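My current task is to audit a protein record that another person submitted. I have pasted the whole thing underneath without changing anything:
***
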Amino acid sequence: MNIKNYLGYTTDDNKFSSAILFLRLLIGGLMLTHGVGKMMNFGMLSEVFPDLLGIGSEWNLVLVIFAEVFCSIALIFGFLVRLSIIPLIVTMVIAVFVAHGNDPINVKELAMVYLGIYIFLISVGAGKYSLDWLIFKKNRFTPGCANMASWDRILRIVIGFVFFSLYFSGIVSGLFGSFLVFLGFVLIGVSIWGVCPPYFILGINTNKKKDKK
């Protein structure tokens, strides 16, 4: 046992990744409880939630729930961590400097702690014990490694716009409608990227041209 690794800086990548995993599980789980509470009371909160962005109380609440629930889940599993943390950082910045901008430090202290941890995590990444490591360790996120065929990408874009149409035509609304809009953006974004991360995990590749090369 090297006592220096416990008294000072450790260069052990496994220990560092273990510490990041613990921090991801802790901070992601704690924030998830806030988001789930808001989601369960969406109907009541959507009428009184502060309109800090000027887009209406309901959409403000939808964005906060997206950050606190979906981004926290992504953080826990270590999936697209640096991208997932951005909405969480934005949420905490608004909480500290807008929602509680004139409040004393003890009122916004918790939001500042969250903000500091998120900034740390976006700097160091997900660590080895994460889906990011499993998916991206061989640089499979590059455009040259697209695992989606043209028909696969077009189908997702069509489905994404169908979801948009269902929401903006008023056929679906509320939290479910907001979820469809979010899912539509994800489908279109993945289609433009050409890389479906779950395909790597499941061993699926619809890009037959790539396989023949």
